[in-house]
Structures are given as C-alpha cells and as structure tokens.
Amino acid sequence: MTSATLARPAPLSRGLRFELVKLVSQWRIRLVVLACWVAPGLFVAAVSQQSTLPVDTLFGRWMHATGWAGPLVMLGFAGTWALPLLTSLVAGDVFASEDRLGTWRHLLVAVRSPRRIFVAKALSALTVLVLMVAGLVVSSSLGGVLAVGNQPLTGLDGHLLSAGDAAARVLLAWACVLAPTLALAAIGLLGSVLLGKSPMGLLLPAVVALALQLAQMLPIPVAVRLALPGYAFLSWNGLFTSPAQWGPLLIGIVVALLWAATATALAYVLFLRRDFTSVATDGTGKRALLFGVLPLAALLVLSVVAIGAATGVTGSGIGQDRVQRSVATAFAHLYRLQTGQLNRPDVTEAQLATTADCNKGGGRRDPEGAGNDWRCVVSWHLPGTTATGQAVYQLDLTPDGRYMADGDGPKEVNGYFLVHTPAGDAPNPLWQFDGNVALLQDEPKG
Amino acid sequence: MERPRAVRARGITKCFGEVVALDAIDLDVAPGQIHGLVGPNGAGKTTLLGLLLGLAVADSGRLEILGTPIRRALDAPDGVAGFVDGPGLYPGLTARQNLAALARLRGRDPRGAGLDEALDQVGLTDVADDRTGGFSLGMRQRLGLAAALLTRPRLLILDEPSNGLDPVGARHVHRVLTGLAAEGVGIVLSSHRMDDVEALCSEVTILATGRVVFSGPLSKLAAENRELDYRLRTSDPARARALAEEAPGVTVVDDEVIRALVPAVDELVARLVREEIALRELTPVISPLEAAFLELTEEKG
To answer: B77: nearest CA in chain A?
Structure first.
C-alpha cells in the first residue's frame, strides 16, 4: 500500500445524471410528468366540445373558435395553480429529500464537492420542470388544434391573429412564464436549503405564489405590481394586443430572472456554509432564514425604486384615457369581426373612428383604478352615413388592468344573439369581451 | 517500502460552537486491521468517523488517511468508503439500481462494476430488484456495505454496521469484513454491540465525552488490572463455593458468580481440578470489553 491520491470530485455531468435518476425514480414525479403531457390535451379537447365555455378565464370564450385558445386558457390556469405547485413539488423538495432520507453524508462522500451537488440538483430540478412545462404547452396545443382546428385567434384587443401568428405567440407566452417559474423554482431551492425537513420548505413556492397573486389583486402602485416576481404570469397577456405591450412583459421577465438569480445565489451560499457533520442540523437555522429573506426584500425595494424611476408611472396605472382607448380599440376590432360574421360589407377601424367615453361610479367617482363600476359609451361612425352609433358597456376592471366588458345596449349591437361562424353558432362578439389596459404606456389606437 | 497506516490521527480536536466533540484524539489503524470504536451516545464516534470519511476537517491536530494528510473537508483520498448515520439509499430505486447509480457516479460501467458480486457477498441477491423503500434496517446496512465494496476500498468506515442485522445477515457482514481485512483493507467500525466488536476487532478505541479513555488490543483490556464477574458452574456447587470463599483474591457474589482478577481465577480453577470437582462453565458475566467500557465511561461520565 502506498500513499493515495486525493479523490477527485465526480464530474457535473455524472452528478446531474445521478440527480435525474433519483428524481425520476419517484412515483409522484413520474405521475406528474405523465399528467403534464396527457391531462391538458384531454382537458382542452373536452372543454372545447362543451356548449358552455370557461368565459371567466382569459381566451376561454374563444375555445370554440380556435384551438389556440386552449393553451392560453391552460396558461392562465398554470400561472395560478399548476406552475407554483409543480415548482413546489420539484424544486421545493430537491434538497429537503436528502434531509428526509438522511443521505447527505452519503452524497457528499460519493460526489466530494458541495458545489457540484448544488449545481447538479438545481439543473436536475430545472430539467424536470422544463419537461413538465413543455408537456403542458405541447399537450394543450395539440388538444386544442386537434379538437377545434388551426384557426385564427382573436386577440385581447379584438384584433385577429393569423393561425401561424397565434401559434408563435402562444409558444412565446409560455416561454415568457418560464421566467417567473424559474423565480419560484429558485425560491423553492432556497426554501429547501433553508428549511430542510420542514414541510414549509416544500410548500414555500406555492405559498409565495399565493401571496404574489393576492398582492396582484390589491390596488397597489403599478411600480410595485411590476416589481413582483410573479407579474410575468399575467403580463404575457400583452403579447395578444396590437401592438404588443412589451414594456410590462419585459420588466416582469427581468424582475423574475433577477429573483431567480438572487434566490439561487443565496441558496448556493447557504448550502456551502452548511455543516454536514452535525446530525442535529437539517437546515441552516434562524440566522440563515434571515439571511435568505432580507436580500430578497431588498431586491423588491430596489426593483420598485428602479421601475418607478425608469417608467415615471405613479398610482395604479389605470386612468380614464387608457381605459377609453382600450375599450374603443377592442370595440373597433370586434365590430369588424361582427361585420364579417353577419356578412355585411367590410369596414376598417379607421373608417369607424371609434371613441369611448368612460366614467366611474356614474361620474361621481374619480375615474382612476380598478372597479366594477366603470361605464363606457362607445361611439363610432357608421360607414356610408353621417350617423354616429353608440353602445354602452359596463366594465369589471381588475387592479392588474384586465377587464371584462359587458354589453348594455343597444341590443342589436352589443346584446346577446348568436352569429354564424365557421366553427358554428357563437355569441355576438360585441356582447361581452375581455380586454386589458396598458399600465405603462398609452396604448395606440389600432 | 513501508505501507502507510490506514489512519494516523494525532491530537485531533473538533468543536461545534462551544461543544467540544473531539478532544485531542489519537488513533492508529493499520492496513488489514479491524478497529472498533465504542463509546456512549454523544462520545464523538460519529464525528470522528465523519472526519475519517472527509466530511469535515478537524479544528486542530493532524490526520493522515492512507498516508495522505487531510487539510480540507472532502479531501479524502481514493479508496476511502463507508457510511455514517446509516447508509445513503434512495427508496425509489431497487438495490441494484442504487448500486448502479453509484457506479455511474464514479464513472464506472455498472455492467463491469461487480454489482452482482457485491450483492452476493452481503446476501442480497434475492432482493436485488426490489425497491429499497421496503428494506429492513439490516438489509439497508448490508446494501450500504455492498455500495462501499464497489469502490474497492483500502479504508472502510462503518457506523453501526450491525444495527438491525439478523444472525444470517450478521454472518454475511462478518464474513465480508474479515475477508476485506485479510486483503489488507483497514476497517474502522463503531458499534454498541460488544459481542460484534469482540468477534471482529483486533483493536479497540473507547471514547467518552470526546476523549480516548482506552486504545489498544482487546487482549490488553482483559489483562488490565480489572476484576470481572464470572459465572462458575461445577459438578459440586457447595464444595466449589467453599473453595472459592477460601481462595485469595476471589469474592463470591452469589451461588454461581464470583468476582476476581484473571490470576486469581486461574488459581481457583487449579484448586477445583485438584479437588476433582468437574468444571462445567466458567464465563464472564459480561465481556471484558463491556466491563471495561462500563467502568471507563462511567468514570468519565
């Protein structure tokens, strides 16, 4: 026996494979991956065949018209429920599972590098998450297209996207929500490192996602809204207007990626500081909890300040002018759609010269911010005449800028009646429609 | 060329905050030696085993593993294997998959890594394709040993390897360990089972509150100036008791138990034979190791 050379750490590729084998060996992971690849397609196909559509969900009312509405309905559901729960399941448990199984020391002896263990675990969680998200988008898209067809999609401002454009934007929207998913996954990694065996480690991404959703429902200043790492779960909506609302979307993505990077870096530092020889310690203690939470709080504050300074917006971002422009634009686009469905001569948005006059609380309240007491009178020029048409809408406008406009007459314009479409009879498109108010810039009239 | 010691530790001290887990520990383990590490709970055994595996580095002192000085955590040399706090197994994988995953992690093709041989050595061939989630503690211990065997160790560190083993499992483990030792592998094992330590180990270190209270061959423990209780059964208990009561250095504890040093016991046996009293049983009530363990650790406690 001669003196030995020091054992070299296992290469990252082998560590990653080891972590993936462990993850995939878990029944719950296998089942969830399978569900992600099968269930959305079945759900979208089944709902698309129903007479009643999920009109409360964005694009739900268009599920009979095009297969590309299905993956967007699924995206809305995923941003609220599926993605936070998936990140909890995968990233929230990737470190904690070693605590639960008591395998840390074994893993360290086998790999000989905490750095590589961390990177391998983070990459394996990311791989499985991306696999799940890919399943959600591919399955729901296939389900929609196979059940309904590859038809044009009506955008959030009523303009029509070609089938190809719709497909590209659906994929882009799903790609955009990877950013907040990564942020939640990084928070999951941090919770998993910080809290060890505690169930809170597993639940942290879901709890954070719920808190972020609650915050988005509150009338907070727009700079704070955009500085929350979950905003990109909502701001993908802006891809379906013309022109696209890139500002809030890009800000949401950058913020989410900053959170992902910061939380991952914190988890990395805390993981390297952990003492694996002490049996009693399965996490890194209260000081580390403070060390993990404070930097993220600081990031939130810095983001709010930076966004506020860069955009110059104050308040809710929902002003009278923006609401009026959004409603007028959507009405004009949908009027053209209705004209086509009723086999009338085509008109252009320019010919219609639509305007909207909106107030809040019957004019007794300041026309600013969310509420279900917005009322808009839309006016447009009837082609070939000098007459001006008028229609009334009640708006239920949420603090994140989304609204549902409900037609309040005249009945022959925005009342409920069925129109003939290639996909069969459908409600009058001007009866009820979804829209959103651009929180950052004045939305140009399309 | 002289073979370096499997373990050479001098003045090893390790603290966790204000708690001194190890206090100036010396330890020597020769190649081919099975060295037992015993001590009460909290004595520092697991901490010491963790240092030998390279999980942490000592605060002070000098540690050489297989002739290589250890200066940083996870700096252990090639050929060190084993486990502390139980083997690391993943319940979703079968026994074979656990070993295969480890083999791949170390850059070896599982087909040529000797998985079947390792499973056979520890007697787990029949359950090789069962998920380890359903394994008993003893089966897990044996699979942990099989995982260590895959690395072709030169120093094997085992924390309570006999926990949960049935007699058949214990026989497998004993056979594997004695076989490895015969091949020159140094083995350090901790155990609360004195019979295991006595059966397997040529040397033992007794720890109490982080300090070494004894280190050396088992025979040295028995030879130390320590009275033991012996169960004495003869063909004529009454006469034997009378002789024992008269014998110098022998205390009669009850009808069948005497207390004495080894020389006094030898003398009593000679007298019994001279008086033609047949000796049917003469065994320590508790083993020399256990007696030493209790005495030394209670003193420290």
So the answer is: A6
Main-chain phi, psi angles of B134, to 5 degrees: -95, 5
Rounded distance between C-alpha atoms, residue A73 and residue A59, angstroms: 6
Q: Which residues pair with B208 in a beta bridge?
A: B211
Hey, which bits of B250-295 come out as E strands?
250-254, 257-260, 279-284
Answer whether B85 sits within 8 Å of A279, measured CB to CB: yes
Cβ within 8 Å, pair A277-B67: no
Question: In this complex, which of B31, B88, B101 lies closest to A105 when CB atoms are compared?
Answer: B88
Angle, alpha carbons B89-A14-A181 (nearest 5°): 85
- Residue B65: list chain A partners with CB under 8 A: 4
Q: Is B164 helix (H, G, I), strand (E, B) or coil?
A: coil
The whole-angstrom separation of Cα B110 and Cα B96 is 9
Cα–Cα distance measured from residue A435 to residue A240, given in angstroms and rounded to the nearest whole number: 10
Q: Taking CB atoms and an 8 Å cutoff, what residues of chain B touch A107? A: 88
pLDDT tens digits along B63-103: 999 999 998 888 888 899 999 888 889 999 999 999 999 99
Alpha carbons B253 and B241: distance in angstroms, whole number: 10
3-state DSSP call for residue B19? strand
C-alpha distance from residue B179 to each of A361, B34, B122, B175 (Å): 89, 11, 12, 6
Q: What is the pLDDT of residues B154-189, one digit of tens each?
A: 999 999 988 888 888 888 899 999 999 999 999 999
Contact residues on chain B for A108, CB-CB shorter than 8 A? 55, 74
B contact residues 92-121, partner A, Cβ 8 Å cutoff: 92-93, 97, 101-102, 104-107
Assigned token pair, A306: 């930076």
ω into A152 cis (within 30 of 0):
no
The burial of B118, by beta-carbon neighbours within 10 Å (0-12 exposed, 13-18 middle, 19 or more buried), is given as: buried
CA distance A256 to A185: 11
Residues B188 and B155: beta-carbon distance below 8 Å:
yes
ipTM of the complex: 0.82
